[in-house]
Amino acid sequence: MKSMLSAFLAIAVIAVGSNLILGQAGFSSQERGSGPAVRLD
Question: Is 30:36 a contact under the CB 8 Å cutoff?
């Protein structure tokens, strides 16, 4: 049970960390999936 909870915690840390890192690096889906003629607000 302890290993499963630590795995869930690791998944959450990886998901949040990758979201923050990729968002700052310019790899968000909004920036990658839109061209110059698309306005996303």
Answer: no
